[in-house]
Amino acid sequence: MSSILSNLRNTVIAGIVLTIIMAAIVTSVSEGGLMMGHAFGAFIMRWMHVLSGIMWVGLLYYFNFVQIPNMPNIPDEQKPAIGKVIAPAALWWFRWAAMATIVTGLLLAWMNGYLLDALTLGGMNGFAVDKSLAIGIGMWMGIIMWFNVWFVIWPNQKKALGMVEVDAATKAASARTAMLFSRTNTLLSFPMLYAMISAQNLY
Question: Are 25 and 41 in a shared domain?
């Protein structure tokens, strides 16, 4: 057990294997058994979408609730450990989790036939107030958040962390811009998650 838990790759592999075993047991006792059709494929895509979203929003909240507020409390001689080691690794997972969340979400909407309806906020059915409007609002908020990650936060973080050489004033301005857009994403995450969950449970 120690060899599994002491290595992240082994832990992830073990988690996936456990998931497969659990799914096989649950579906084998359910009526009809495992159905390898559209419904099961859409379910797997939703599972990957949720996993990616947890990673993305979890890291967003780590940055905003833990790292940024506590940076002033870290002694100057210890800050390079955050800026050179922790933050770049966290940002790698952060931006690729954002990408995975968007890709799996769009694929899921396409697989279930509501992609255009959601992106037009129900425009394909006369702007009716239903599931497509709720999930469409959530999708657009997610797309805005994804755009902020890839085209505002990440480019500015590269300057703020010294991955791209800039002068001190630009470095400080980039750090503030990255922080403000990260806070914007935190703000949007609450209504975005409400829209997504309400689309699945209220309509």
Answer: no
- pLDDT tens, position by position, 39-59: 888 889 999 999 999 999 999
Angle between helices 168-201 and 131-148 (to 10 degrees): 160
- The range of the structural domain enclosing residue 28 comes to 1-34
Specify the pTM.
0.89
- The model's pLDDT over 151-185, given as tens digits with 9 standing for 90+, comes to 999 999 999 999 999 999 999 999 999 999 999 99
DSSP states along 14-40: HHHHHHHHHHHHHHHHSTT----SHHH
Q: Tell me: do 30 and 122 sit in the same domain.
A: no
168 in the same domain as 118 = yes
Tell me, yes or no, whether 110 and 161 share the same domain: yes
Alpha carbon distance 90, 74 (integer Å): 18
Rg of the chain (C-alpha set): 20
